[in-house]
Amino acid sequence: MKTIVVKMGGVASDNLDFEFFQQIKLWQAQGHNIVIVHGGGNYISQMMEKMNVPVEKKNGLRVTNQVALDIARLALLGQVQPMLTGRFQAEQISALGLNAASDRLIEGHIIDFHKFGYVGQVDKINIYLLENLMEIRQVPIIAPLGMTEDGQWLNINADDVAAQVASQLQADELYLLTDVPGIKKENIWMKKIPTEEIDELKDKKIVTGGMLPKIESAKKALKAGVGAVFINNCISSKGTEIGAF
């Protein structure tokens, strides 16, 4: 029995097609545990623009003041997560939406308030909650929001959350879904990237923007014992696999 963690980006969340749910059902039929972590950056940006709140990003992370944090919570918990859980349930897959306030699911700390505002990094995941849900064949669907020990909400990159969840569950596979079929080098989609080449890809600007947190999260997850990491736009093929080859 495998444990599989799937991170869905905001765009990927719009592409919940027949093929996606067939793969989820196949994994379940094989007895595998599945955890979903969802992003929603495009929904947050759209809501910020409608409210005339400036969108600013640094190193692929959204600069998050209190207003942006409130909007992120509204978009993720009020829009994206209900849409996802509704789609899973419509496919007869038992799923439960979770966030940082769900039995202290995600605890973290502020990275650099002066630079990023309320952007956090994960310290601890309540894996017992996730394991209990998976035991009764529920699919946890997790929003990338955390809390500090004293209750301050944090906006956390969804790739980081997924990597930490996968690491602490010692997952067999981690899928980081995005809107492209992997990582491209010299106009070729790469099938495999050894972990020791990651820094070179960053230095040569082959990996930039929103792909930076993905590749860093993949590196951290593999180092922590996750079996394999795939960056792709669907879960029925491997896309770009990152690992020790």
Topology summary:
Layout: E1 3-8, H1 18-29, E2 33-38, H2 41-50, E3 57-58, E4 61-62, H3 66-90, E5 95-98, E6 106-110, H4 113-116, E7 119-125, H5 127-135, E8 139-142, E9 145-147, E10 153-156, H6 158-169, E11 173-177, E12 184-185, E13 188-189, E14 192-194, H7 198-203, H8 211-223, E15 228-232, E16 240-243
Parallel strand pairs: 1-2, 1-11, 2-8, 5-8, 7-10, 11-15, 14-16
Antiparallel strand pairs: 3-4, 6-7, 9-10, 12-13, 15-16
Helix pairs in contact: 2-3, 6-8
Pfam families: AA_kinase (PF00696)
Subcellular location: Cytoplasm
Protein name: Acetylglutamate kinase
What features would you describe in this structure?
Keywords: Amino-acid biosynthesis, Arginine biosynthesis, ATP-binding, Cytoplasm, Kinase, Nucleotide-binding, Transferase. Residues 2-231 form the Aspartate/glutamate/uridylate kinase domain. GO terms for molecular function: acetylglutamate kinase activity; ATP binding. This protein is of the alpha/beta class. 37% of the residues lie in helices and 26% in strands. It contains 8 helices and 16 strands. The strands form 4 sheets. An 8-stranded mixed beta sheet has the order 5-8-2-1-11-15-16-14, sandwiched between helices. It has a 4-stranded mixed beta sheet with strand order 6-7-10-9. Strands 3-4 form a two-stranded antiparallel ribbon. Helix 2 (41-50) packs across helix 3 (66-90) and helix 6 (158-169) runs parallel beside helix 8. The longest helix is centred in the N-terminal third of the chain and has 25 residues, at 66-90. The protein is globular, with a radius of gyration of 17 Å.
